[in-house]
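Appendix B: a complete holo record

For completeness, this appendix reproduces one full record from the ligand-bound portion of the collection. The bound molecule is zinc ion. The inputs are the chain sequence and the ligand SMILES; the output is the full three-dimensional arrangement of the complex, encoded as structure tokens. No fields have been trimmed.
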Amino acid sequence: MTSVDKKNNLDVRATCLNCIDGRVQFPALHWIREQYHTDFVDVITAAGIDGVLASQDNIGEIIRSINISINVNKSIRIFVVGHYDCRANLVDENTHREHITKSVKRLKKHWPELEIIGLWVNSQWQVEVWCK
Ligand SMILES: [Zn+2]
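The structure of the chain with zinc ion bound, as generated:
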């Protein structure tokens, strides 16, 4: 969080790429709002989205949604979330973390100037920063 975020008195907006799982929505949203002083969080979901971004060829619909969040809603950073006990991306924790890292790197190619942060939601439903 810097004063630059509040330039022109605009609301601070972020984009959260999260799993569809209802258990991870509030933890991620609350954490982003508090840790990054964010007024509004645009949420884009897909089942096991870390695995989708890491390994699926066609992510056009996700890219389209991110573009609207950034270009129209003026989001200034992106979060990619992976989580404990994900039933849509059935891999162990280390592989989830690899998927999150791959996701962040893939999105960086599209938006090299944007801050993109990988988050892990652990078994206590706490949010941890995994990679930037
Ligand atoms: Zn999940």
